[in-house]
Amino acid sequence: MSSDDPGMASLRKGKLVVISGPSGAGKTSICQALLDQVDNAFWSVSATTRPMRRGDVEGKSYQFISRQEFLTRRDRGEFLESAQYIGHYYGTPRKPVEQAIAEGKIIILEIDVQGGVQIAGHMPDSVRIFVLPPSSDSLRARLQGRRSEEDDVLAKRLANADGEIAAARDSNCYPHFVVNDILEDTIEQVKSIILKEGACT
Ligand code: 5GP
């Protein structure tokens, strides 16, 4: 059967791709490129209790929900993984991911290290990639350039970055670390990792 055969998508086993990294490392641009360039790739829309920020679109960037709703859904087991990041909850809705995998799709999760560790435990054959900034100065410059956070939030995100990088290394849950210096090169690197791990044709 050729890979163009219409029956192929349903026979091919789906794959979960986790992209993690500190805030400002460029994860969202990388994920956007994967969605545009990788056949059969889909985005998992997380739920969060953080307030919307400039550029966010309800239902597309996130499902923006109350803390109460988040905790209720978490207690019902509706999240595949969940974590607290700088005072807010984030979680991956379980059903759409399980459905996409059953349909042979590549599902992309942009989640933090705590979530990546949980996914590594539940789904060891997921592809897990950690994106590093070229330097702390570049991370600061990118976050400041984004102008989407108040100064105090931005300071907390920066302060969190070193801990996240250390946690990713110590966890041994990320077989792949990529340094995002030139975005186009990083995208190619990430695509080739996904390809090697058998997640796309
Ligand atoms: P932001 O507030 O910048 O959108 O996201 C903050 C952090 O939460 C980022 O590291 C992002 O990858 C992570 N994140 C987003 N959605 C989820 C999720 O569903 N689960 C977990 N564990 N982290 C998430």
Helix-strand blueprint:
Layout: H1 8-11, E1 15-20, H2 27-37, E2 41-43, E3 46-48, E4 62-64, H3 67-75, E5 79-85, E6 88-93, H4 94-102, E7 106-110, H5 113-122, E8 127-132, H6 136-146, H7 151-171, E9 176-179, H8 183-196
Parallel strand pairs: 1-7, 1-8, 2-7, 3-4, 8-9
Antiparallel strand pairs: 3-6, 5-6
Helix pairs in contact: 2-8
The structure holds guanosine-5'-monophosphate (5GP).
The site of guanosine-5'-monophosphate has 14 residues, from strand 5, strand 6 and helix 5.
Could you characterize what this model shows?
The protein is built from 8 helices and 9 strands. The protein has helices at 8-11, 27-37, 67-75, 94-102, 113-122, 136-146, 151-171, 183-196, and strands spanning 15-20, 41-43, 46-48, 62-64, 79-85, 88-93, 106-110, 127-132, 176-179. The radius of gyration is 17 Å and the shape is globular. Strand 5 and strand 6 form a beta hairpin. The model is unreliable at 1-11 (pLDDT under 50). It has 201 residues and is an alpha/beta fold. The chain has one domain: 3-Layer(aba) Sandwich (Rossmann fold). The strands form 2 sheets. Strands 2-7-1-8-9 form a 5-stranded parallel sheet, with helices on both faces.
Key attributes of the depicted protein:
single chain, 201 residues, alpha/beta, Rossmann fold, five-stranded parallel sheet, four-stranded mixed sheet, 8 helices, 9 strands, 44% helix, disordered N terminus, binds guanosine-5'-monophosphate
* SSE ordering: HEHEEEHEEHEHEHHEH
Helix content: 40-55%
Largest sheet: 5 strands, parallel
Lateral strand order in the biggest sheet? 2-7-1-8-9
The total strand number stands at 9
Which hetero compounds are present in the coordinates? Answer: guanosine-5'-monophosphate
Task: Assign the CATH topology.
Answer: Rossmann fold
CATH superfamily: P-loop containing nucleotide triphosphate hydrolases
Tell me the β content: 15-25%
